[in-house]
Design goal:
Layout: H1 7-56, H2 65-76, H3 85-97
Length: 99
């Protein structure tokens, strides 16, 4: 009995496997590009957030990183980002005093 190879079918399978490997390669390239974009976007957002927080709360170049870190940590506790420490105290005492 003679075994016959279907050349047309073999050609189609080879083509299919080639297409799959091409799709995988393209997908990996796209994923690498997306990771790069995500990293750049995160860096940009962190930079902008730092810049805006510094401007909003009056941190200048003379402020130490430790001072800014403590102030921002205080602001994040109980969502205090809407008011500065000094002004919050003033309002608190005004409310208690009935003024």
């Amino acid at each position: 009995m003679e075994c016959r190879v279907d050349e047309d079918r073999t050609s189609r399978i080879d083509s299919y496997v080639g297409n799959i490997s091409d799709i995988v390669r393209r997908t990996m390239t796209i994923l690498t590009q997306l990771r790069s974009i995500q990293s750049r976007m995160r860096s940009h957002l962190v930079y902008e957030a730092k810049r805006h927080v510094a401007r909003l709360y009056g941190f200048d170049q003379n402020c130490s990183r430790e001072y800014i870190r403590k102030q921002v940590r205080w602001l994040l506790v109980k969502d205090r980002f809407t008011c500065q420490r000094e002004k919050k105290r003033e309002r608190f005492w005004k409310n208690i005093g009935g003024h």
